[in-house]
Specification:
By secondary structure, the protein is an alpha/beta fold. The chain is about 40% helix and about 20% strand. The protein is globular and about 65 Å long. The structure holds NADP nicotinamide-adenine-dinucleotide phosphate and guanosine-5'-diphosphate-alpha-D-mannose.
């Protein structure tokens, strides 16, 4: 019997899969909250999990307080990792109500039920660098929040109305991880890094002719998800609950990501034109990348670069995978997987 039990909401997502794997390898009993329509959480996990360790499933939804109460009573966790969210910033402009319902009100439901079932439980909550919005980089725990998307707004409301009050007034052990963008071969295919790694791999294999992107000038601090879930766990082992920025401290544009990814596949991209007329050409002058207004956001977070010195100092956390290493890992993984299939 494991000494520690963890309940992960959002276990079927990118971070949920790496975190489940990490906790299983640390000897935790892992429970995952899934919806009826969720994929099997083990499907994304292909790492070195002990074959006898498995994930215990409980059904629930952040939209439904009773389901959360029952999941908590069944799993009796020592630690809760709240990763579930409508996590797509672009979609949050199209579905603001759902985003608020899950990313803001859902957090309140979970904390209310957790407090009732076990006020001693330790909780990690997935905040986000998107909350910094218009605040220029570098951003750390003291930088002002200025979200520009419904997603960022909802995450900030959850932090201000639930996370902080439950910690400061009700004494719940709550940590808020302000994580900057983190990616991996398990990243959802609609996020820009995975869209680029998949599309270039398909182009290289002759499975696709071209693809479209939005704002190439957007700058992000991209790290590896496998590194970032370790920080989530470390936060809950610390003596006191707090907020931590988790980031690499280096940033790159979407254009840089495309060029670095193309080099992994020994492809060249040459840019010509401007604005919506800009295109990326291959070495034969064929258009392989177009710009489509559809992929622009009504309001954009232009630049993110985090300063994670507090996490480095207090948790001993540091990222292990570089930008070049991350791009290489993602592109090769997509290329090899698609090549096996074609
Ligand atoms: P993801 O891959 O999109 O996973 C989202 C998860 O949330 C999925 O497991 C999904 O389950 C679940 N979910 C969605 N709505 C739900 C609901 N109403 N009830 C229960 N579960 C629900 O996201 P991720 O990249 O792993 O991110 C994890 C968390 O970190 C999110 O809260 C995200 O906002 C935050 N975050 C991510 C990053 C990043 O760069 N990845 C950075 C900062 C913060 P289904 O399988 O049922 O759809
Ligand atoms: N998705 C997407 N698709 N983004 C594009 C595209 C495209 O075709 N072209 C350019 N971009 C730009 C977006 O406008 C944004 O500036 C940047 O690429 C990154 O977009 P995403 O990969 O969708 O990530 P995000 O930064 O909006 O949000 C992610 O990171 C947040 C942390 O800062 C998500 O994981 C959020 O859940 C997370 O909180």
């Amino acid at each position: 019997m494991a000494d520690k039990r963890a309940l992960i909401t959002g276990i079927t997502g990118q971070d949920g899969s790496y975190l489940a794997e990490h906790l299983l390898n640390l000897g935790y009993e892992v429970w995952g909250l899934v919806r009826r329509t969720s994929l099997d959480p083990m499907m994304r996990i292909d790492g070195l999990v002990h074959p006898r360790r498995r994930i215990h499933i409980v059904y629930g939804n952040l939209r439904d307080g009773a389901s959360l109460r029952s999941a908590l009573e069944q799993s009796q966790p020592h630690e809760i990792y709240n990763l579930a969210a409508q996590s797509d910033v672009g979609i949050s402009f199209k579905c603001p109500d759902e985003t608020m319902e899950v990313n803001y009100l859902g957090v309140g439901r979970l904390l209310h039920e957790a407090m009732h079932v076990n006020p001693q439980v330790r909780i990690y909550h997935a905040s986000t660098s998107e909350m910094f919005g218009k605040t220029p980089p570098p951003q750390n725990e003291h930088s002002p929040f200025a979200p520009v998307s419904p997603y960022g707004e909802a995450k900030l409301l959850a932090y201000e109305h639930f996370v902080k009050p439950y910690r400061d007034k009700h004494g719940l052990f709550m940590c808020s991880g302000i994580l900057f963008n983190h990616e991996s071969p398990r990243r959802g295919e609609h996020f820009v890094t995975r869209k680029i790694s998949m599309s270039l791999a398909k182009l290289k294999l002759g499975l696709q002719d071209d693809f479209s992107l939005g704002n190439l000038r957007a700058v992000r601090d991209w790290g590896f998800a496998g590194d970032y879930v370790k920080a989530m766990h470390l936060m809950l082992q610390h003596e006191k609950p707090d907020d931590y920025v988790i980031a690499t401290g280096t940033s790159h544009s979407v254009r840089d990501f495309v060029e670095t990814a193309a080099k992994v596949l020994e492809m060249d991209v040459r840019w010509t034109g401007a604005g919506f007329e800009e295109v990326g050409l291959d070495r034969n002058g064929k258009v392989i990348i177009r710009i489509d207004e559809e992929f622009y956001r009504p309001v954009e977070v232009q630049s993110l670069r985090g300063d994670a010195s507090k996490a480095r100092r207090q948790l001993g956390w540091s990222p292990q995978v570089s930008f070049a290493g991350l791009v290489d890992m993602m592109v090769k993984n997509d290329f090899e997987r698609l090549a096996r299939r074609s």
